[in-house]
Design brief:
two-stranded antiparallel ribbon, alpha+beta, extended
Length: 74
């Protein structure tokens, strides 16, 4: 018996032009230009944010940036 496994489309993420972001004191500070919502990001979220170019699949960002940086095996 053969079981069909659904193939999921890749997810691509990109930074919004309506967001201002800066590294300050080793932390990523992000502010929305729309409603002035302010966020700080931890190291993992910062790596994802910096890699979110809209052209690199999220799975590749996780595999090549997060897993390598934090020595997580597949």
């Amino acid at each position: 018996m053969t079981v069909a496994v659904p193939v999921m489309a890749e997810t691509y993420i990109a930074r919004s032009t309506a967001i201002a972001a800066r590294m300050l004191g080793g932390e990523m500070m992000i502010m929305s230009a729309v409603d002035s919502t302010f966020f700080t990001r931890n190291e993992v979220a910062t790596l994802i944010w910096q890699s979110a170019d809209g052209q690199t699949p999220l799975s590749e960002i996780v595999e090549q940036k997060i897993c390598q940086e934090y020595q997580i095996g597949a």
